[in-house]
């Protein structure tokens, strides 16, 4: 069996991953510039891309299974080993392109994660400054002090 359909599916999958990488770069830019409305739109687009990737990956698994004649070890390397001629060359190229895109995507996602964590730490610190912890105005004997953190005052008065 020829690998033509498999190669077309892999090309589509690579294209989707490149779009996902571009989306990750947009996310980075919007995180840097605190553009939350635009970030929401990018996140929605990212969800659509991820769903498309899942569907295309399912199709790739089916095509690889048909090409290899088995249901295990459906890797791109295994497909390239079985293919011949131009198909083998193209599958090897696709493998390298996937590796490159995945490395870039991983780095972009790690940066976005670090930036998001920094922003959350800043928000938490700001809230801690706005809502100070209750302090005991009187002396307490050290052996009767509570071991747990005292309750924090709420930002909103529930009795209002």
TrEMBL record:
Domain of life: Bacteria
Compositionally skewed regions (Basic and acidic residues) per UniProt: 143-160
Gene3D superfamilies listed in its UniProt record: FlgN-like
Annotated segments matching region Disordered: 134-160
Keywords assigned by UniProt, alphabetized: Bacterial flagellum biogenesis, Cell projection, Cilium, Flagellum
Pfam name, any one: FlgN
InterPro entries named among the record's database cross-references: FlgN-like, FlgN-like_sf
Stated name of the protein: Flagellar protein FlgN
Organism ancestry: Bacteria, Bacillati, Bacillota, Bacilli, Bacillales
């Amino acid at each position: 069996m020829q690998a033509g359909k498999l190669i077309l599916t892999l090309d589509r999958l690579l294209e989707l991953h490149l779009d996902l990488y571009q989306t990750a770069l947009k996310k980075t830019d919007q995180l840097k510039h605190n553009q939350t409305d635009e970030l929401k739109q990018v996140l929605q687009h990212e969800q659509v891309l991820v769903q498309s990737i899942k569907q295309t990956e399912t199709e790739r698994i089916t095509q690889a299974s048909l090409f290899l004649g088995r249901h295990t070890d459906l890797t791109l390397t295994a497909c390239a080993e079985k293919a011949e001629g131009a198909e083998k060359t193209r599958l090897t190229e696709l493998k390298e392109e996937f590796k490159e895109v995945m490395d870039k995507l991983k780095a972009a996602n790690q940066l976005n994660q670090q930036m998001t964590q920094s922003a959350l730490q800043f928000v938490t610190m700001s809230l801690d400054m706005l809502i100070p912890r209750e302090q005991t105005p009187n002396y307490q004997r050290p052996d009767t002090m509570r071991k747990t953190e005292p309750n924090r005052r709420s930002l909103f008065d529930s009795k209002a």
